[in-house]
């Protein structure tokens, strides 16, 4: 195949893709572009735990307000649920949306969410009971919910166990290298910075590194996380660092204590497993060491040529048993 044919084939492929994209966009416009139902919500971000109100608006006044309903899409069930008290969605609302309020007044349908959580953000839509109408539903609407969890501070290099609890007091040996990590969960990646009490320096990072610590490094350090969009959403965590003297015992440091606790938990678990294993082995041995059951009450069989089978000479006419 010549180069001209290859270029022509590639050009034709691009044209086909362009046609497919155009048809898809046209169908989406025909389906939603003329929809008369829209959902209006807050234009500003909503903090987790705040209040939000959604309104179902019929721009062309073609629907009866009594036939309009709000629906919530469940990502786990992959289906839409009505938020009114119908027989199909009653359990869903009672479990997840028991606090919502519906109001129909002055030709308006309002949905009030008193305490918005992240899993309640949506998407929502407004739909009419008239299923024959091609544009009986609005476009999905999602509430912009912002949040930030509590900060957690842990020391790097001391094992995975230290990440499951946040440090409040850190005792380190003289000359150690200390690396502290500060983290949290938020709707957007927050901005971190470290500061030390009594000093004016700031480290714009989630990681604080102190190399070969001395007595002057002792003090209180504060990690601050600030939401990039909602600047008023700030979380802080303060940790106290104590540099032990050179003659301090090895077990006085926080790292040594974590190691001791981990070792003690491992030894305790090993003892429990060993005890259960010994118990099961002894029980199995007792079962296999038992002989046959000697039941003296059981009748012995009488054979033809045995002494017990000879006829009685005492005139006993009772049959043999």
UniProtKB/TrEMBL annotation:
GO cellular component terms given for this protein: cell projection; plasma membrane
Transmembrane segments: 260-281
Keywords: Cell projection, Glycoprotein, Immunoglobulin domain, Membrane, Transmembrane, Transmembrane helix
GO biological process: cell adhesion
Region of interest (Disordered), ranges: 289-321
Broad class of the protein's primary localization: other
Membrane disposition: Single-pass type I membrane protein
Location of the Ig-like domain: 134-240
Protein localization: Cell projection; Membrane
InterPro entries for this protein: Ig-like_dom (IPR007110), Ig-like_dom_sf (IPR036179), Ig-like_fold (IPR013783), Ig/MHC_CS (IPR003006), Ig_sub (IPR003599), Ig_sub2 (IPR003598), Surface_Rcpt/Adhesion_Mol (IPR051116)
Stated name of the protein: Ig-like domain-containing protein
